[in-house]
Structure formats: C-alpha cells, structure tokens
Amino acid sequence: MQQLINTALGGLTLGMVYAAFALALVLIWRSTHVVNFAQAPMAMVTTFVALEIIDHGHSYWLGFAVALAAGLVLGAVVERVVVRPVEGGPEINAVILTLGLFIVLHALASVVFGNRYRSFPAAFGIRGIDVGGTTIALTGFGIFTILAVLAVMTLLVLLFRFTDLGLRMRAAAFNQEVARLLGVRVGRMLTLGWALAALVGSLSGLLIAGGSLVSPGYMDSVVVYGFVAAVLGGLDSPVGAVVGGLFLGLSLSFVSGYVGSQLVALAALAILMAVLFLRPDGLFAPARERRV
Amino acid sequence: MNTRTRKLAVLTSVLALTALAGACGAGGKDDDDKGGGGGATEVGVTDAAVTIGGTFPLTGVAAPGYSEIPTGAQAYFDYVNANGGVHGRSIEFLVKDDGYDPTKTSSLTDELVLKDKVFATLGSLGTPTHNAVVDSLNDQEVPDLFVSSGALAWGDDPGAHPWTFGWQPDYEIEGKIIGQWVSENMPDAKVGLFLQDDDFGEDAEKGVREYIDAQVVEAQRYTSGNTDVGPQIAALQASGADLVLSFTTPSYTALGQLVSLKLGFKPQWYVSNVGSDPTLVGGLLERFSEGAVPGTASSLNGVMTTRYIPGVDQPDNPWVQLWQKVWDESGQDGELTNYRIYGMSFAYTFVQALEAAGEDLTRDGLVEAIEDDGGDFAGPQLAPYRYSSDSHLGISGMQVVELQDGVGQPVTDVLTTDIGDSEIATDDSGQADDAPPESGLPE
C-alpha cells in the first residue's frame, strides 16, 4: 500500500514537471503555431544561470527569479534574432531551426557551464512529509511544484480565454494576414508568445532540477516526455497539457516501479502511439468538423 | 482542420524518430578490418615512446568521479617519463571521452586502434561501454589491459578474450565477500538489493546470492541514464528490507540516498566500492537542500563498503604518500582523490607489465609477461593479483570497512577468494604491508 502511494506521489510530482514543459509547448503552439524543440536547452541554460547565482552565495529565490526573467529575455531574443527570418515561410522551417538551436545551445552550455553533473538545491526541504508515523513521498518542494504548475495553467487559460491580449495572440497565430488587417501587431504578438513560453519553460527547468542533478543534458528526457504530454493533450489546450503530463508521469512511475525501469521510454512511446491511433488530435481536441 | 492534423503528424514522426534514435543507442557493433599486424616493429612502439589509449566518461551521468581516473594515470606516466621512462621509452597516454555511451565507445576505440595506432588500450572504463568493444579489440589482437570495471567478462575466460585483462576485484567476489559477512554478522537482516541493470549488478547479485539467497527479500534495478529512482527505492522500502546492498555508480548512490531521505527509508546501507567515495557522493548530496543533508564526507556515515587499495583517508600510508608526491609534481588542477589514486594504481601495474615484457616490446610479449609474472607483481593492492594463463582477473580480495567522516574503519581483515565456489579466506600473503620502492618506480 505504502509503495503504491509513494509510487503514485512520485509520478504525480514528475507528471507536473512534464505538464509544465508541455504548457510551454502549448503556449508557443497557440501563439505562433510552431513547435519549439529548443525549449529544453533554453530551460537548461536558464537553470544553469540560477545555479551560478546560487553558487555565488545568493539566495535560492533570487536565482529562481533571475532564471525566469532570463527565460523571458531569451525567448524574445530567440524569436527576434533566430526565428524571425524564417517566419512567414512553411512552419516546418521554423521547427527544423529550433532543432538546430537545440544542438547549438547544448554545445554552448557545455563550454560555458562545463559538463560536470552538479547538484541543484531545492527550496522547502527534500524530506518527505510525515503522515501518521509514515513518511510519504511528497516533499515541500513537490507541493510547490504542483501548485506552481496549476497556477501557470490557470493563468494561461485566463489569458487565452478572457483577455484581449490572448485573443490577439491567437489571431496572430491563426492567420497573420487577417490579423494584421484587423490591426493586430503580429510581430509583437509572436515575440510575446515566445517570451512567455520560454518563461514557462524555465519554470519547468527549475522544478525538475530542484533536489536533483543538473548537466547540459538533464532536460533531454523531459523533451521527449513533455512532447508526449503536450500531444496527448492535443497541443492546443493548457488543461489538456496538464492532464497529459499527469497521465504520463503516473503511468511511467508505475511502469518503473512494478514492471521495470528499462521499459520506461518504451512505455512512453506505446502510450503516445495508442492515443494517436484512438484520437489523432489528442485527448482534448475540440470535436472535428466533418469534411465534405 | 486538415492542416492541423498534418502538422501533428509531422511533429509526431519527428518525435518518434527521436525516441527511436535513443532506443538504438545500445547496439553498435563493428566489423573492422584487421588492424595493422606485427611486422618488424610493433604497432604504437618506437625506440623513444609507446603509445596507449583508453576511453573514459569525461561527461554525462557517470562522469562525476570517474572522469578523474585518467588524470591520475596521466600523472603517474608523467612521473615515470620524467624519470627516464621504461626501457628508455616514454609512455604517451591518449584519453577519449565516450560519455558512458557504448556507441561512442565503439567509434572512439576504433579511432584509437586504427587512427592513433595505439599499442594497447589501458583502463578503458565501464561495463556496458567496454562490452561494446571487447570482441573487436580481441579480434584485432590489441592488448586490452586493466579495464576499469569489475565485470567478470574481462578475465574469467582467457580462451574467449585472450587479450583482455581485468584489474580491480570483480563484482562477483565483492558480492561473495559482503554476502558472507552479512550471513555471519547479520543473519536476521532482511536484505534488499539495489542494482545497476547490467553485468555490474548481475555479477554482484550472483556473488551475494551464493551466501544469502534466502535473506534477500527484494532486488530492484535501475537503468543508467534515467535519474528517477523513486519507484525502485519505494519498492525496497515496501519489501521491509532493513539492509540494502547497493551496487551503484556514484551519481546513483547519491540519488538513492536522496530518495530514501524523501521516503523516510532508513536501512543499513552497504555501497559497492565503485560507488561509495564519501567525498564525491557527499559533495553531490550536500548541496541538494541547503543544510538538510549534513556536510561533505559525513553524509555517508555508517555506510559499509569495501576497499582494495589504500585511499586518501589513509594519508600515512606510504603508497598514498607516493601518490600525493606524484600528483603534486604533475601540476594538474584539483586535489588528490580516490579516483586519481585508482588511475595511478593501474598505471603502476602497467609500468610493471612493460618492464616485465622486456626491451623488445611486442603485444604477444606483454600479454605473456602479465600471465607469467602478474601474479607476483608488487604494488598498492591489498591482495595479490590472480593473473595466469587460466585467469585474467585482477586483485583477488578486499576488506570490508565502515565509513565515518569519510574514513574507512576496517570491519574485517583483507579477505581473498575467487569466482565460483572458491572459499573465502583471510589473506596471508602480506601483500597489504607492501611499501613502494624509494624511487616510486616499480623494481
């Protein structure tokens, strides 16, 4: 019983991190209709920025805040400098470009921050909470992770559904020409979309790093699982991303605990394929129109 | 919504390819042409120098600690070269970074053998990594010396791999020695095993089960590269194990300790020699939660492990004093660590082998010299080597110790044994009292 609970709680925390990453992907998809493969190394870079600050004796939260701010700036810069030249062409160009960016950032981080594994501190402690004499696998930092991801999800839903800004971002992503005719500053919206997505990405980087080891490659597995989570949720829906992340985190945790840790990656692929067979647009896609 | 589906399809195929590429990483076998054979002069040997090389994880999950091993070996070769080399030849040691990725090990080893034309490989690190190249090295008849791993495959069958030699005690005898100790001293313990999911864990489990099969209540395996070991530790906790034997690399020792803290799981721990360096593991643990894990070396207090060469916790040992001198003279960055001592120790054995092979250095001659004389090599090892024409396994025994503030307190004498049903005995060879020659060079 205790193992069941602890495996589930471990999966829950992990799923929330996948969800955070998936949220960043959803955000960028909704605001630019591009899938950003460089999301993970961008988050890795900002996490290293936080680690450098903490290692120089400053507080955890200063590092945390600076990393988020760095994410915002990095996202905007990447959009303006790297992605802007290929915008307007086929979207696959931008996707391939982000793959290239993935490799470049990886290499740069190895040069700047070194390839060593380093431990990253966690706020709120890393001991499990005591419930009636038994310790359960939920740490203070785990609770923070869950709350932070839920808050981001809510904010995104509010942004896209209830604000003028969100509407303009969606319009810019949906059809640039028409949006422009209607007075939307499309370029600005795209930059904003990238910046916000990178901010959420940085958050996911910080959450998965807390109380674990970081190296230039530490986000690589999150890329795959985060994408799976986002696709499960339909790429369009913040709620879908969180549900997809949770579903994936829990499934993988149970596979690892009860079947074998060597099957984790395979299980993720199996889940992805199963969902795409059954609901090609993801679990949370709106009903399809009939084609005539 | 037609375009949307199409985009999703593109994305999905890219994703599937990524996953597939990852899954394929473990394969990688290569059918090489035979590397340049004998001739008048031996490959990699001139009158002035002998060139050797090895693959090590300088990056990636296995890099903490292990990346320091080649720096130690290099320091000792610098020392030997500064003192005239061996038979007038200096030793050139080429180090390649495989990141603990078997696919990379294959191509880098090919590079060493075919492009750099090394005389032999030395100290190449890792069980899964070296498994990818051991056949090809033997096919090409390249001496493959002192693999930095305790898997049995490096020496239990010289007929299959005549060119490969192990060095450190293999994981099976480590498993046997700790297994016997548990059966005699903790007969009521419920034993959990935390194992790396390859030959490392497998060989160790074999040794442990020879003595305490009935006491083992749970065996959990982690896959190197997946840093989430929560489910494995939760399963060990649920099994009610009160003694966990952990055959892990240093990063996973740290992750295991960390998750146990999270779960409130407090068994007695035994950590395999290769994953128990208190300075390194403590350093990884220390910063996780500002202050929640106590300072560096003491975080592994009470953990049991084994030792087979003297380490930095014994500064008065004459070998450690020699290593300190060698390290200081090499002028490389950083402190002397147990991993650097490990590198120096096998480098010392290699120099002995070169001396024994004589002035006319050939690959055949080197292997013959180790088989003939290796059993009597002096050196820092606490128990003698097992080298002969029947076995290419290295050091024959170790001592169980308990860590206190980073210092290993002896729990047993030096115990020696061999694979299979060979008895465990207290070592009476006096090898552990061996001191280095004045010059620091083997005689």
Any key phrases for this structure?
heterodimer, A: 292 residues, mainly alpha, two-stranded antiparallel ribbon, two-stranded antiparallel sheet, 11 helices, B: 443 residues, alpha/beta, Rossmann fold, 2 domains, five-stranded parallel sheet, five-stranded antiparallel sheet, 14 helices, 14 strands
Topology at a glance:
The complex is a heterodimer of chains A (292) and B (443).
Chain A lengths: L1 H31 L6 H17 L4 H24 L7 H23 L4 E3 L7 E4 L2 E6 H23 L1 H11 L1 H6 L4 H24 L2 E3 L5 H13 L5 H22 L4 H15 L14
Antiparallel strand pairs in A: 1-4, 2-3
Helix pairs in contact in A: 1-5, 1-6, 1-8, 1-9, 1-10, 2-3, 2-4, 2-8, 3-8, 5-6, 6-8, 9-10, 9-11, 10-11
Chain B lengths: L1 H22 L25 E8 L6 H4 L2 H14 L7 E8 L4 H14 L4 E3 L4 H5 L2 H6 L4 E4 L16 E3 L4 H15 L5 E6 L2 H14 L3 E7 L7 H9 L4 E5 L2 H14 L4 E4 L6 H9 L17 E4 L10 H13 L7 H20 L5 H11 L23 E8 L2 E4 L4 E2 L8 E2 L17
Parallel strand pairs in B: 1-2, 1-3, 3-4, 4-5, 6-7, 6-8, 8-9
Antiparallel strand pairs in B: 10-11, 11-12, 11-13, 13-14
Helix pairs in contact in B: 3-12, 3-13, 7-8, 9-10, 10-11, 13-14
Short description:
The complex is a heterodimer of chains A (292) and B (443). By secondary structure, chain A is mostly helical.
How would you explain this protein's 3D organization?
The complex is a heterodimer of chains A (292) and B (443). Chain A has 292 residues and is mainly alpha-helical. Chain A has one domain. Chain A contains eleven helices and four strands, in the order ααααβββααααβααα. In chain A, the strands form two sheets. In chain A, strands 1-4 form a two-stranded antiparallel ribbon. A two-stranded antiparallel ribbon of chain A has the order 2-3. In chain A, helix 1 crosses helix 9, helix 9 packs across helix 10 and helix 9 packs parallel to helix 11. The longest helix of chain A has 31 residues. Chain A is globular. The termini of chain A are far apart. Chain B is of the alpha/beta class. Chain B has two domains: 206 residues, Rossmann fold (3-Layer(aba) Sandwich), CATH 3.40.50.2300; 136 residues, 3-Layer(aba) Sandwich (Rossmann fold). Chain B has 14 helices and 14 strands. In chain B, the strands form three sheets. A five-stranded parallel beta sheet of chain B has the order 2-1-3-4-5, with helices on both faces. In chain B, strands 10, 11, 12, 13 and 14 form a five-stranded antiparallel beta sheet that branches. In chain B, strand 11 and strand 12 form a beta hairpin. In chain B, helix 9 packs across helix 10. About 5% of the residues of chain B have low confidence. The chains are: A mainly alpha (292), B alpha/beta (443). At the A-B interface, helix 1, helix 4, strand 1, strand 3 and helix 9 of A face helix 1, helix 9, helix 10 and helix 11 of B.
